[in-house]
Amino acid sequence: VSDLQEEGKNAINAPMNPSTVDIHPEDTLLEENEERTMIDPNSKEDPKFKELIKVLIDWINDVLVEERIIVKQLEEDLYDGQVLQKLLEKLADRKLNVAEVTQSEIGQKQKLQTVLEAVHDLLRPHGWTIKWNVDSIHGKNLISILHLLVALAMHFRAPIRLPEHVSVQVVVVRKREGLLQTTHVSEELTTTTEPASHTCAVGDVLILFFFSPKPERDAFDTLFDHAPDKLSVVKKSLITFVNKHLNKLNLEVTELETQFADGVYLVLLMGLLEDYFVPLHNFYLTPESFDQKVHNVSFAFELMQDGGLKKPKARPEGMDVPRGFKLCLKSSEQMYFKCNSIQ
C-alpha cells in the first residue's frame, strides 16, 4: 500500500519536478520565473522536419550563390544578421543601411533590428503573425529562425516545395522557486504551402511560358544563354507543381516545352486546379493538326478567364516556346507577387 501511495504522490508531483529531457548547461542558467524553449530531441529526427531544414538551407544557398555565401547550419550561420541581411536584400531587391561586418553583440543585434524591421514592413501588411524577435534570433532559437525563413519563402514565392504540416514538440523550461520545470507544447511550422489561387499563379506563369510576345534582350537573356543550369530550379519547380496535380490522372510531365505545346495538359490542369471535369468533346485529347492545337489553347484561355484571370494578351496561334520560356522566368516572381496580393 505504501508503494502505491508513493507512486500516486509521485504522479501528482511529477509536473513540478525537473524534466529528464537533456538540457544544455546554458539553458539551466535562468533567472527566477525566466523561461527558455528548445526542440524536443525526438522531433529533430522527424523526416519532415529534417526535410524542411534542408529545403530552406538549399534555397538560401541558391539565392546567395553570387555572394559566395554557403549556409550549413541555420542557428550558427544566421544568428548575427549577416546572412539574413544579404538574403533580404537579394529577395526584396533593396539595400539596407547597416554595417557590413559587426563582431560585437551590440552591433549584431543592431543589424538584426534593422533587418527584422524591414522584414516586418513587408510581412505585416499581408497579415503575417510575427513569431520571432531580435533576442530569439540572436539567441540561436531554431524555432524562431524557421518561422522567419518559412514566412520569407512563402511571401517571396520561393521556387521550392516546403514540406506541409510540419510540427515539432517544443520543451519549455521555466525556473520556479529555484527548480527547473518543463512542459511540452506542439509548434506548427508549416501548414499547406499551396498558393491560395492555383489558377492565378500557374495559369499566368504557363501563359508566359508558351505564348508571350518577344521581350527585349537584357541581362536575364545573357544568363539564359550562358548559365542555363541556374535556371533549372525554376523549371523543376513548375514541373513538380504540375505533376502533383496531373498525377491524379496518371499523367506526368517531364518536358514543359513539348508536352504543354498542344494545349491538352493545360486544359486538364485548369480542370484539376478548379476542381471540375472538362468534357472531352470540348477539346482535342489527341490533336493532329495545328488548328486543333490552337483550339485547345484557346479553350484553355477561356477556362483561365472563368477561373478569374484576365483575358490573355497572347494569341493562341502565336506559340513560341524559347521566347516564352525566357519571359516566364523573368516574370514569374512578378506574377507570384501579383497573385499573392489576391489572397
TrEMBL record:
The keyword Acetylation does not apply. It comes from the Eukaryota. The keyword Cytoplasm applies. GO terms for cellular component: actin cytoskeleton; focal adhesion; lamellipodium; Z disc. SUPFAM superfamilies: Calponin-homology domain, CH-domain (SSF47576). Residues 50-157, 232-340 form the Calponin-homology (CH) domain. It is found in: Cytoplasm, Cytoskeleton; Cytoplasm, Myofibril, Sarcomere, Z line. This is PARVB protein. The lineage of its organism: Eukaryota, Metazoa, Chordata, Craniata, Vertebrata. The gene is Parvb.
